[in-house]
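User: structure tokens for this one?
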Amino acid sequence: MRTEEEMQVKGQKAKGKRQNGRRPKASGDRRGAPGALRVRPMTMADKPAVMKISSRIWEGNDYIPQFFDRWAKEGGFWAAELRGRLVGYGKATELAPGELWLEGLRVDPGCRNRGVGSELSRQVVLRTLERRPVSLRLATADVNRESIHIIETVMGFRPYAQYRYFVGKPGKPRLGPPLSTPTVAQALEFIGQSAELAASRGLLAYTWLFRSLDRRYVTELLRCGYVFGYGCTSKLTGLLVLRPHRYHGNDLDISFVAGDRQALAAFRSFLSRVARDCGTKSISSMAASDEMAQALRSLGMQAHPRIGAVPVYGYPI
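Assistant:
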């Protein structure tokens, strides 16, 4: 698994802390890169340059190529040019009306340590704030110390929630009791009363993307067939939100799981069968609470060996 999913913006350490609701300040880099950096909307004509940069990130396993066409068409996708050459990019995605998520921030490996990452990040935030969002968030891994420095001191974000990253391999398929499809009200109540939602401050994780839980979101998940219940029709004793991995379609991602011992055993059996049918090689999840972390362990998953924590940051709007 990757050591950095949403932020790879290594840049020179910079001054310019944001205080008391002010917008991000200039990075103050003295080598001239930020002053020469031009940030503009991405176009389809930029695709070859983006593909070239992405091929040099994570040994060619960057996920940006999968999203380029859609991101370029929907907007909020920013290209950074230095002396006429594309050297970085970043995306602001609207998860729900007014709820914006920053992702895909990248800098050409050949342009690192020149302040490009700091200035790109700063300008992407400024342009995103022009959309007057209700919320603006992003996430990274605790091992990305340089990214965290930029997020906190240049971009002006503050810690919002913290997750633990779990991974696992599918087990041998086995029979189990049938699961049910809960109603919107049942699913919303079950998740809403969980320790996980309290620890995450209202967010539901999905492959390095974290969205606020509301009726609209639960309705979307149920319509797509991603929500599974356990228990009698009048009262759920367990709930599972299982989705295709955002970057690797055959793999699986658990957005939520909780329940009693019988429910978790039923979910583990169900997960083994779904993994077999999908050709799944890996299962991933994020947990903000001890309760969900323990539930994931009961499904055979373990904490990621290199990533200790996944901090989610919010911009103080």
